[in-house]
Design brief:
alpha+beta, two-stranded antiparallel sheet, 3 helices, 21% strand
Length: 97
């Protein structure tokens, strides 16, 4: 993974479950800090992609720029919906017009 955020030598300890026969055991293994940071902050992108795949307006077109245009519209709609949900959670008593 290429990044400018962390140091390559920084590591964190994570738990991994392994199965031997019918017995599950928890092992503590080192993980680079870069992967831990990625997993922590990429939740919103994964959620956006999940919403986008179920509710998209993409049409099958012959032109590549039309596909890109529809995809950008889809991303704008999903991002505005996520921002609306965050605003609604932050100000639950605020009535929107």
């Amino acid at each position: 993974m290429i990044t400018t955020v962390g140091n390559v030598n920084d590591q964190v300890q994570v738990n991994r479950k392994t199965r031997t026969g019918d017995v599950w055991r928890t092992n503590v293994v080192p993980q680079p800090q870069t992967f831990a940071t990625y997993n922590k902050y990429m939740n919103a992108v994964d959620r956006s992609d999940q919403i986008l795949t179920t509710n998209n307006i993409q049409r099958k077109c012959m032109k590549w720029w039309k596909i890109m245009f529809y995809h950008l519209i889809d991303m704008a709609i999903v991002n505005s919906y996520i921002l609306f949900l965050e605003h609604q959670a932050k100000f639950p008593d605020h009535e929107d017009l």
